[in-house]
Amino acid sequence: MKVRDWVNNNSALVTILSVVLLMLALYAIWKINFAREEYYIPKNLWFYDLGTNKRFPAPREEIPPIDAPSRTQIGPNKVPAGVRVYVFTCGECKDDEMFEAYLETYTPDAKALRIEQDKKAMQMMNTPPDGTVPGVPDPMMMDPAIMMDIEAGHLVARVSDPTTWFSFQSEDGQKAIQDAYSKCPKGKYPRDCPPPDR
User: Fold this and answer.
1) Are residues 30 and 71 in the same domain?
2) Is 160 part of a structural domain of the chain?
3) Same domain for 30 and 48?
């Protein structure tokens, strides 16, 4: 009965302690569920200059191919040399631990469709045009037939052979991606290393 008597005699202190414990518990729940690194949306992504074989940061909204620092243009259609490069690590996102996993780009027609569909999806999400609310277009908001046309022009390549491109959905394309994901030792899974926000 001593504890009950003490609680009854110190109800203000017990209330304050209860509120503090509740706040700590809510903070712990938030920290565990919502403050994880994977919820971070970087402002920039890595791109790769096919003219210099070096990566460079560009805004995440860019869809490859984009203008690269070298200003190189590729092929008879003079396509910009900037393609998306996925940069991973098996440990920490330090220069000596990161690796360029694979390259990604779109054909000019697929890029035009993707830009059009992204704009429509962003409008459906009510994202302000000034970009004050970060958003990523939801593929589920896109027309399935147009998505198939976009995916037909969605290409990937190995960093070791940036002149040989495969359809993203092809067996060779999926093999290039799987090879990149299997570079870590057994039991480790690569994680994305975006450029640092400046």
Assistant:
1) no
2) yes
3) no
163: which 2 tokens? Answer: 């002149």
Judge contact between 187 and 107, C-beta under 8 A: no
Q: Are residues 94 and 23 in the same domain?
A: no
Q: What is the mean pLDDT of the chain?
A: 82
Q: Are 41 and 59 in contact (CB under 8 A)?
A: no
Does 197 map to a domain? no
The pLDDT tens digits for 22-33 are 666 666 666 655
Q: With a threshold of 0.90, does the pTM exceed it?
A: no
Q: How distant, in Å, are the alpha carbons of 32, 80, 151, 165 from that of 169?
A: 35, 23, 8, 12
82 and 16 within one domain: no
Quote the pLDDT of residue 75.
83
- Cα–Cα distances (Å) from 184 to 1, 116, 179, in that order, read 60, 37, 10
d(CA 147, CA 139): 8
Largest Cα–Cα separation, the chain: 89
Range of the domain at 25: 2-35
Contacts of 197 by beta carbon, 8 Å cutoff, 6+ apart: 42, 43, 44
67 closest CA partner among 56, 81, 55, 48: 81
Structural domain includes residue 198: no
Number of domains in the chain: 2
pLDDT digits (tens, 9 = 90+) for 82-95: 999 999 999 999 99
